[in-house]
Amino acid sequence: MRVQKLSLLAVAAVAGLSLTACQGGDTSSSGAGDSSSPSSQSSTSQGSDSQSSTSSQSSTSQGSDGSGASGGKGAPTASRTGGAMASACTTSQLAFSTSGGMAEGTLIVNLKNTGSATCSLKGFPGADLKSKDGTVSAQRSKLAAPLASVKPGEETRFTLHYPPNNSGGSGETFTGLVVTPPNETHSRTLPVSINVPVSDGSGPAVTVDPVGTGK
């Protein structure tokens, strides 16, 4: 009887140990599964955030470079702002006068800047001689037109060329010269006394030089 009791106790003890071992293995396996799952989810979430952050940073950097380049191209350069040409002289800011040329058959027309800022003139003026019989428009000479920059109080000039009357006849006398500055539509009429020989149209023509070439 004692032997049987010991045997039964031994069997019960062995069974208890086996059950304990099995339960420990299940718990360990379950615990390992639970711990690996959160770790995996955490890693995936962090990777997504990092990728999103990198993509966002990259996009912002490109946008900054692009707008910076655009802003640089659109910004005004020093040559555009510092080297700008003076505005064109208008008829209203010019005073007109005449003087005799150095050669016979020439008339100097002076243009004085009466404004408060420097202005510029470039090109041929309109020059029309008027008499009691009509108007003669001066033709352009072959001289190149320079850029004449005129400061306040200073003047520039051009020369009118006409054939002097050496025929001994009365000729044709012009008493008015209508001057239109280059790139302008408003004119000024100056009193003159220019006598040219009467011709059938084959004689020398009246010509005008560009502004900035007179002496």
Written overview of the protein:
This protein has 215 residues and is α+β, with helices and mostly antiparallel strands. 36% of the residues lie in helices and 29% in strands. It is built from two helices and eleven strands; from the N terminus they run ααβββββββββββ. The strands form three sheets. A five-stranded mixed beta sheet has the order 1-2-8-11-6, with no helix packed on it. A four-stranded antiparallel beta sheet has the order 5-4-9-10, with no helix packed on it. Mean pLDDT is 72; it is low at 1-82.
Write a concise keyword list for the protein shown above.
disordered N terminus, 215 residues, alpha+beta, 11 strands, four-stranded antiparallel beta sheet, single chain, 36% helix, five-stranded mixed beta sheet, 2 domains, Immunoglobulin-like
